[in-house]
Amino acid sequence: MIANHLPRIRHILPMASVQRERKLDGPGVLTVRVREKVQSADVIAEVQPQPRHHFLDLASALGVSDTEAARLLRVDLGSNVEAGQVLAGPAGIARRTVRAPANGKVLSLSRGRVLFETREEPRAIHAGVPGEVAGSDGASSITILAVGALIQGAWGNGRRGWGVLRDVGESRSARLEPSELDMILRGAMVIVGVVDNAKSLQQGTEIPIRGLVCGSMASELIPIALHMPYPILLTEGFGATPMNSPTYDLLSTNAGREASLEASLLEPYEPQLPEILIPLPATQDIKNPERIVQLQPGVRVRALRAPHVGAVGKLLHLMPGVESFPSGILARSAMVELEGIGSVAIPLSNMEVIA
Amino acid sequence: MSTILEADTLLAVDVGTVNTRVSLFDVVDGRYRMVATGRASSTAGAPVFDVREGMHVALDEVSEITGRPFFDESEALVMPTTAAGAGVDAFVSTASAGPHVRTVLVGLMPGVSMDSARRLASSTYLNVVDEIGLMDGRREEELIDAILSAKPDLILMVGGTDGGATASVVRQIETVSLATSLLPTAQRPALVFAGNTSLGAAVMEHFQDTSAVAVVANIRPDLEHEEFGPARLKLAEIVNQLRSQSIAGFDELNGWSGGYMMLTADAFGRVIRYLSQVYDPDKGVLGIDVGASHVTVAAAFNGALNNKVHSDLGLGISLPGLLRYASVSDVSRWLPAEIPDSEVRDYMFNKAIYPGTIPAELNDLHIEYALLRELIRAGISLSRGDWAEGTSSELMPPLEPIIATGGAIARAPRPGYAALALLDAVQPRGITTLVLDPYNLVPAVGAAAGLLPMITVQVLESGSFVSLGTVVSPVGRGREGKPVLRIRIDPESGGEPIEGIVRYGQLVLLPLRQGEHARMTLRPEKGFDVGFGGRGKAGALRVAGGALGVIIDARGRPMELSKDPARRRELNQKWLYDIGAMIQSES
Questions:
Q1: Exposed e or buried b for every residue in B532-563, given b needs 16+ CB within 10 A?
Q2: pLDDT reading at B30 higher than 70
Q3: pTM of the full structure
Q4: A329 and B246 in contact by Cβ < 8 A?
Q5: Nearest CA in chain A to B582
Q6: What is the CA radius of gyration of chain B?
Q7: Does the distance separating the beta carbons of A325 and B360 come in below 8 Å?
Q8: What is the ipTM of this complex?
Q9: Which residues does chain B have within 8 Å of residue A268's beta carbon, measured at their own beta carbons?
């Protein structure tokens, strides 16, 4: 029997082929070509930061009319100019001129004023994952094809990074103590069960670590986590839920390998979810992550809510009709054999398929 | 058969952020009835980004119930109904799912056009990311940079009453025009001008080399009036266009709807306004829709609608936004059990990650309903300033009825949960009726009202909506246990009359089943007003029964919760028992 229900999907795949798009958030240049191999740290594009604009009142600075100011403009509209370069003039006995206040561009002239755009140093966009450039629109977007273990998470602090995976607590429920973050973890991507201490997060900046992958974190730490310079990814959510076992197993067995961490913010209409990619040599058994999976006996599921939040198991069968739960709520449900717990009924809404 | 359109069957689809609902209406005994409904997870967001997947699953459920196929072999909707009974005669759709529309408001005076623009923006799914007004202290170049860094999807320009200011408006238009000209063509926002009508041609001219601008009727034609109709239609069109650009399937739904796919909030507001024209003219109608991404509060008084969509409130992805208006302890004060604030806070952020999940444990249910109360309170508090009835009083204006919908309300394990949450959150005064829309039919009938005008009233009068009961909430304060009013209920069915005294602090249910009517006589004590013309004034009226009968809420208006946490929890639990939400085996 297949449920008339579209479950959430969480990808925890030991070997997968994924395409990740890098979009420029402003004008810039792409520095790689299609089919080029890239490493996580490679710069694949340079993007111009949001420019600043200034009106320069030529007419008033030169002491001339608007029309005369237009005649005295010495540069073409749209052209790049260097700081100090004469933009207009000379005018009058004092031979007054107007010079560019910074490197930039003269965009327009109206009523004796020019609109001047200042340029700042371009910002580098890194590949973030090792792989091959699979596609590009030639202007603002690059797609990288990567192969490796893929683990999707639940929440991220909006940062991206890469580093060598290190399992600190050696258990999926281990709490991260500030004292555990010592110099040996410098540059590491730290794996831990639970974070409930602001000092632990701050200690991570002092080492510094390159990223933090934890099962869950106290929600009161969100404002601090959002300000950390390194990526933080939660696999379960907020509270003290241990990391789910398939994720922990995959991460801990790959300890010592480099991983890319995309700790994307929660944006329901953005395609990028928080994820970890551990690059691995391609094998025969590569899966493309599925977008839709049917809920049916045999699929692996993870419980999303109490009383078994985070527990993983196998769906045994879909239950006919609706089940009543301790809250009194009636819901379509499935019987699931949860690891270490046994058979329990879980509302279909409260489970996601691990695929 | 219906009036305007020759249609017996109507299919309505509402695409929400978490759920997609499909409802099939048919004519039964000459009146429209909802005959089947289906629900599925919405697929507007990641990873599917195609609303049709969720819609098909929900439709399959309706097909299974009714045996009616809706699509032909080429997956096209069969319309009108075939002789074999396949398809439907009419189709309507509504949607609230989709990314927020980043909007910059440009206007003149803070108390005039800018206020109107804010009101218009908050009546639909816009997310205002910046405002540029005449009193803006920023230099022109800073305004240009502000527009560019806001990355708006839409710039809504207003200002100048008709025949009023032009020069200031034109200066602002020039700034917007210059800023948009600096953006690559593909990133230019939609532009709407809804200001001084005499500037329409000039506005078009300013943008002719950069972007297309829609000029619609002035939303503030003079100082005393607002006219949102044409601007709202244009904004709805833009919201739908922007959704279609990022999510597949909306175009198809819009096509099946004859190009009139509505925003859920607009359809919801249409019904609330209609009801305010047909119910008691001395009272307003209040509609509350608590979704995962939005809380919509629609209040209408004699046909004057105020509809507010709060995109930073909701029982899902938007839930953390509640912390801007309420603290975690504000939420916790409604709990009947001791649950640490840290747990409530974690719950809020987890619900934002997993908005489609439901509370299976009792404590989770308590947290969810405490959150529901604060979401409704915040939504009403943010909306009330613009209600036609004004906000001079701390008390709610007289309302009849109060209609509530949304996933959490719909799945209340017992009607008492929903009723108590509404009573605590809204704190109605006098006499009113609480109505639940468990199948989220209000948007459907609102969207259908244009095609089939009779459907609204016929479906509302059918059993698809749940009347929780008539509520009597005496206004006044007293001492715990002191009499508040004497009540007598004489059932029209001829049963035994019910008589009694209700005391301060009590929440009392008196039996009167759904569909039954009775004459209710109320004699309030001197300090209490039940809406019969002042404190201590008695009166009688005909009332309808409901799922809970007649509810007497004598907990005082405004209601004050105990400052002692243990006593507060004890009372919260007692009220749950009193209203039938919990039974003795639960705690």
A1: beeebeeeeeebbbbbbbbbbbbbbbeeeeee
A2: yes
A3: 0.94
A4: no
A5: A328
A6: 25
A7: yes
A8: 0.93
A9: 17, 45-46, 99, 293, 317
